[in-house]
Amino acid sequence: MSDHDYTPSSKVGKWFNDRLPLLTLANHLTDYPTPKNLNYWWTFGGILTFCLITQIVTGLTLAMHYIAHADMAFESVEHIMRDVNYGWLIRYIHANGASMFFLAVYIHIFRSLFYGSYKSPREIIWIIGIIIYLLMMAAAFMGYVLPWGQMSFWGATVITNLFSAIPLVGEGIVTWLWGGYSVDNPTLTRFFTLHYLIPFLILGLVVLHIWALHVPGNNNPVGIDIKKPSKDTVPFHPYIVIKDGFALLMFMIVFAFFVFYSPNILGHADNYIEANPMVTPAHIVPEWYLLPFYAILRSVPDKLLGVVAMLSAILILAVLPWLDTSKIRSAVFRPLYKQFYWILVADVLILGYMGAMPAEGLYLLIARVATAYYFLHFLVILPVLGFKEKTIPVPLSITESVLGGSPNLATARNNESFDKSK
Amino acid sequence: MSDKKPERRDFLFTASYAVGAVGAAAVVWPLIDQMNPDASVKALASTEVDISSVKRGNTITVLWRGKPVFIRRRTEEEIKEARSVKMEDLIHPEKDEDRAKNPEWLVMLGVCTHLGCVPLNDKGDYDGWFCPCHGSHYDTSGRIRKGPAPLNMEVPKYEFVNANTIKIG
Description:
The complex is a heterodimer. By secondary structure, chain A is an all-alpha fold. Chain A has 2 domains: 260 residues, Cytochrome Bc1 Complex, Chain C; 101 residues, Orthogonal Bundle (Helix Hairpins), CATH 1.10.287. Chain A contains 17 helices and 2 strands. The longest helix of chain A is centred in the middle third of the chain and has 30 residues. Chain B is an alpha+beta fold. The model of chain B has no long low-confidence stretch (mean pLDDT 90). The interface between A and B is medium-sized, with 35 and 26 residues.
């Protein structure tokens, strides 16, 4: 793993390290050469690790008080809120933590899209990331079911019913998922089990994600390959540790704002009504982080094709490294891609808004156009752009781009605009 | 590999893998099947409902297998409306005569065939039901007329035990 030999200075350390090279690993992580031009968009990996650990710790403590039974789950959550010492705080951190986790992961993903971090040789990092994202959605969905409120129950009903769209075996799969003929106690207990399991699967995948990252090293805002270690890099500790730490503090301010000042703003009031299989709430809306995909599902008038479109919208990301034909990674040097990138950002935000609105009239029309554009971006624009686009010459090294000492006027001018955009 | 002739050892390997795969599948099956409905869930298969107090034009909702069942005592106009629909106008063609053996009583699962929400009574463009989740409209026979749902609301197995009692399941 390490690029250089490492010998612990103490005798005990050497004795231990010869038997289990943990100190070599620690040394690799502290000395890990990092591009010196990483901006704050690169701090979200660390922030996401913080989010995962927060969810695991608060989740474990909540599980000490929660009861996974259809008759008692709702009450046990209220018990946590009212009786358990600091139960309100732990639950609000956990519930808002899910939203913060998704906020961070979306920034992390869109950073990758802007700077082309998914391109060769980082495809495996990217694909592991997409798997983590899928598992996050599964964990968030199942976690939302556990309080057994109206939104929990009907969200579970709608999402599990997506599988009934599969021809022939669909109904059987749904019954199997439910463990009955509707969402009920067997569904709740298995969702609790899986909700408990998935974070640890994510933790394992995070280790692979970072391992795969440490093979080629970080991408960077200029998007060029760098020699490491060299004058283009700085050691991870203390430089990146401090920068990540500062960004994390800023992030925690936002996090704390939600937890302490508006802990329910991202949730839905209907979930404070206990689950009732006889009455569906007038407006079923998923959590905000799933809204764009929900809009895609609803914009297709056919049940099976709607589900296929929604799943494709996520899975298309996994093949992105092969859909994007451009050899240039960073959007900084791709004037056309840069514009299409921002259109995509707007498109996803529009889809999210439409997902929260009723599926009718103008909303439905806009959602359909936005859905079509989403797929157009990945299936047509990206492959064609790689051949048609006239890119700006990239600098030879990070140092050249940082110092602005480029022999090429276009590059130098671009460096200026790049600095401003930061 | 390809230019080597298969030996006794290759046969042993293949046979071992095959037996191993069958064994693994046999062990995995109970772990998968335990998630299917258990004996206690299946035991709740039927329920009897007293319908003597239901007035014309009213619907009662009862729970059967964890799902709501609509029992509607239809008015003459509703029956006429349901029976006069042309088959070619239907997304999922079913005769009202087949759905409601006794035309006065419509018994069906109150579950939208799109994604399983409970449709609302006396709503929608066809005087029947309307699903608030994704906007499916059902007529007075519970048949899908407009919206993303692919099928009519399901009519479960039921029978009249006597004039005042329906047994569902």
